[in-house]
Amino acid sequence: MLYITLATAKQAKYTCEILEKIRNAINFVKKMLKDKLSYLYSFELVDYLFSNAYFTQKSFEKELGISPMTARKYLFDLEKEKIVFKHRQAGKI
After folding, report:
1. 86 inside domain
2. What is the mean pLDDT of the chain?
3. 89 located within any domain
């Protein structure tokens, strides 16, 4: 029984460390957006970025309710600040 308790405590500590790293990353991105891309900052954008490790421009447009041209500009600026990275899907041109 003691083994299970120690393992649970160790896992809980590990999970708390991961959550703290995620919280720090969210705060870092919020600050960077506010400082460098203030026109782009919104709770919805930050939430979307941290809820979707992979996304397409189309899903970005739809979720944020923005035009394709605005999405391209936002994604270009986010990529320039190294908040997101563009990656082509295999087999796509």
Report:
1. no
2. 92
3. no
